[in-house]
UniProtKB/TrEMBL annotation:
<keyword id="KW-0408">Iron</keyword>
<feature type="binding site">
    <location>
        <begin position="32"/>
        <end position="34"/>
    </location>
    <ligand>
        <name>S-adenosyl-L-methionine</name>
    </ligand>
</feature>
<dbReference type="Pfam" id="PF04055">
    <property type="entry name" value="Radical_SAM"/>
</dbReference>
<keyword id="KW-0949">S-adenosyl-L-methionine</keyword>
<dbReference type="GO" id="GO:0016840">
    <property type="term" value="F:carbon-nitrogen lyase activity"/>
</dbReference>
<keyword id="KW-0671">Queuosine biosynthesis</keyword>
<dbReference type="GO" id="GO:0000287">
    <property type="term" value="F:magnesium ion binding"/>
</dbReference>
<feature type="binding site">
    <location>
        <position position="22"/>
    </location>
    <ligand>
        <name>substrate</name>
    </ligand>
</feature>
<feature type="binding site">
    <location>
        <begin position="110"/>
        <end position="112"/>
    </location>
    <ligand>
        <name>S-adenosyl-L-methionine</name>
    </ligand>
</feature>
<dbReference type="InterPro" id="IPR058240">
    <property type="entry name" value="rSAM_sf"/>
</dbReference>
<keyword id="KW-0456">Lyase</keyword>
<feature type="binding site">
    <location>
        <position position="193"/>
    </location>
    <ligand>
        <name>substrate</name>
    </ligand>
</feature>
<comment type="subunit">
    <text>Homodimer.</text>
</comment>
<comment type="function">
    <text>Catalyzes the complex heterocyclic radical-mediated conversion of 6-carboxy-5,6,7,8-tetrahydropterin (CPH4) to 7-carboxy-7-deazaguanine (CDG), a step common to the biosynthetic pathways of all 7-deazapurine-containing compounds.</text>
</comment>
<keyword id="KW-0479">Metal-binding</keyword>
<comment type="similarity">
    <text>Belongs to the radical SAM superfamily. 7-carboxy-7-deazaguanine synthase family.</text>
</comment>
<feature type="binding site">
    <location>
        <begin position="7"/>
        <end position="9"/>
    </location>
    <ligand>
        <name>substrate</name>
    </ligand>
</feature>
Length: 193
């Protein structure tokens, strides 16, 4: 769908330079999705893996973030092997709702209520990022926190349009449950892609 060099605005690598590769196609259907244009893969031009990797390599950063859409709707073995070959760290942002493919240095799992993650991806996640849209989502976040590995980083993120209302609740929750950290979409605050 698009690719761009920016800083990672969320989660463990927040603030780091990263080349984002956003793949078209998503069958999850989150009501609050902010990239609905990504859902229909056929609306976006196909690019070869060589073109994608060469464009990424034109910048000095060597962290690639594959996102979507739901990137695991595609088999990512060849793309991630080519990125590794070119010296990139490979990170993915996924709902985990399609089978895992690809060679990953970092898996950020963001489970969605609209299509659940497959159980086999949960122990492989390096980072669990749960979007909080309403109060019941805290219990939902704990359900998944209980299924990831003990070393997995835990993040709660307010849904953007409800962030004014939800962020104070997140802060109180994290103070009571300090295994969680707050993840803000800082790229939206500083107005970068
Ligand atoms: S998984 Fe991501 S791209 Fe797909 S609908 Fe949900 S927020 Fe949008």
């Amino acid at each position: 769908m698009e690719s761009f060099y920016t800083i990672q605005g969320e989660g463990y690598y927040q603030g780091k330079a990263a080349y984002f590769i956003r793949l078209g196609g998503c069958d999850v259907g989150c009501v609050w999705c902010d990239v609905k244009d990504s859902w229909d893969a056929s609306r976006h031009p196909q690019q070869s893996i060589d073109e994608i990797v060469s464009a990424a390599a034109a910048y000095p950063g060597r962290m690639a973030v594959i996102t979507g859409g739901e990137p695991l709707m595609h088999n990512l073995d060849t793309l991630t092997a080519a990125l590794h070959e070119a010296g990139f760290q490979t990170n993915i942002e996924t709902s985990g709702s399609s089978p895992l493919s690809g060679e990953w240095d970092w898996i950020c799992l963001s489970p969605k209520k609209f299509k659940f993650p497959l159980p086999e991806i949960l122990p492989l996640a390096h980072e669990l990022k749960v979007v909080i849209f309403n109060k019941s989502d805290f219990a939902w976040a704990e359900k998944y926190a209980a299924q990831v590995s003990p070393t997995c980083k835990l993040y709660l993120a307010p849904e953007w349009d409800k962030s004014k209302e939800m962020t104070p609740l997140l802060i109180e929750y994290i103070k009571e449950n300090p295994q969680w950290e707050l993840s803000l979409q800082i790229h939206k605050y500083i107005n970068v892609p």
